[in-house]
Design a protein that fits this description.
The chain is an alpha+beta fold. It has four helices and six strands. Helix 1 crosses helix 2. The radius of gyration is 13 Å and the shape is globular.
């Protein structure tokens, strides 16, 4: 498995640990120059989006991997965590519906994440 896809799976697994819903890995290769994959997931509340972001940060930090940029944490509606080759998007359900990344990037190959 390529390194960036492996990172996407690690992010998805960390999100799953905190009960994220509808986790998908979007292959962005060839669609954007800035990243290889998006990991998109939903949470019931802003408290849960922050818990998911904290879990991702902790799990990857323990492996020596730090994000390059994080935004939206304080508000918690849409938290973006940029790990370079992979960007995590953690939404409340309403925000995910509103921003509709899967529709916006409809040419991206979508892979639903299943707990391994």
């Amino acid at each position: 498995m390529e390194k960036s896809l492996e990172l996407a799976h690690e992010i998805a697994a960390a999100a799953s640990n905190k009960k994220a819903h509808d986790i998908v890995i979007m292959k962005m290769i060839g669609l954007t120059m800035s990243t290889d994959y998006f990991v998109v997931c939903s949470a019931n509340t802003t408290t849960q989006t922050r818990a998911i972001a904290d879990e991702i940060e902790e799990k990857l930090s323990n492996k020596g991997i730090s994000f390059q940029h994080k935004e939206g944490y304080r508000e918690g509606e849409w938290i973006l965590m940029d790990y370079g080759d992979v960007v995590a998007h953690i939404f409340t359900r309403d925000a995910r519906e509103y921003y509709a990344l899967e529709s916006l990037w409809r040419d991206a190959e979508l892979t639903p994440y299943e707990d391994e």
